[in-house]
Amino acid sequence: MLTFVIRRMIATVFVVFTITVLVFLIFFHTPGVDPARKLAGRNPSPDTIKAIKHQYGLDRPLPVQYLILMKKLFISRDLTSYSNQGQKVVPEIVAATPVTLSLVLGAAVIWVVVSILMGVAAAVLRGTIFDPMLMVLALIGISMPVFWLGEMANLITQDRYHDTFLFSWVPPLGYTPLTQDPVMWFKHLVIPWLVLSVLYIGLYARVLRADLLETENEDYVRTARAKGLSERRVLLRHTLRTSMISFVSLFGLDFGVLVGGGALLVEVVFALPGVGLLTYQSLISLDLPVIMATVIYGAIFIVIANAVVDVGYAWLDPRVRPA
User: Fold this and answer.
1) What is the pLDDT of residues 108-122, one digit of tens each?
2) CATH architecture of the domain covering 97-287
3) What is the DSSP string of 101-164?
4) 248 and 316 Cβ atoms separated by less than 8 Å
5) 13 — phi, psi (to 5°)?
6) What is the pLDDT of residues 26-84, one digit of tens each?
């Protein structure tokens, strides 16, 4: 197992390096893209563009430009925004990360717990009316776009019924840090948690139900029943553990994507100043350093999540470990 983990870590470092190179080339050396012209403003003179290129090292060889940007991003951490001169990019991302983590972690707890309960219940109650009812609910959750659901939640909790006893506790859109006021932090995030988790509850419940039903036909499950083990023990110790492999794989990928900025729509709808909202604002202003930094940040989270998933996969099923 240790050898597998070491190999996976080496592969992770190589993948991150490759991603940084590709992102650098896409954002700064795509034909027709000239960061110096954006910095120079409208109708710049050739001398102005030349001076800006020299100031930012854009007139140096390609490998040197890459090394300068990576140094500013990961070592000196003084990469500056193009739209807001003097504003450091890395501190912006660092300040936005706790917001995104708070949103995604809370939603993840909800969707993992509820989807496991729904998936197990649907599998156990197959053949009854409750099985299709649960799967229909899951399908409805999958079918609702998250931005639409968020807008509907705001319409109900912030406008139509805000003055009623049901939603009078809901604060205005925004975010309060956990360290500043835990109660207000929870109030700001509980609705976004529910909105973000709805899609994943339906998806994960359907995947888990299908895996549970497929696993029940395996030889080791029939052997466990033949030994006289209770159905509860067979479900928890044998069927559910093996069926969680696909569940864990999906969770790792989705969690990495969301933390890396995939929760953008929810953050925009609920005015949460996380990485997704920062990326959205940077895209509007075409602020290349911020966009590049957030893309690399998100890619690193996704790659790390993949590595963790692979390790968890190998722990759940030793057959996937290399010899």
Assistant:
1) 999 999 999 998 888
2) Orthogonal Bundle (1.10)
3) HHHHHHHHHHHHHHHHHHHHHHHHTTTSTHHHHHHHHHHHHHHS-HHHHHHHHHIIIIIITTTS
4) yes
5) -60, -45
6) 776 666 566 676 666 677 777 777 787 777 777 778 888 888 888 888 888 888 877 77
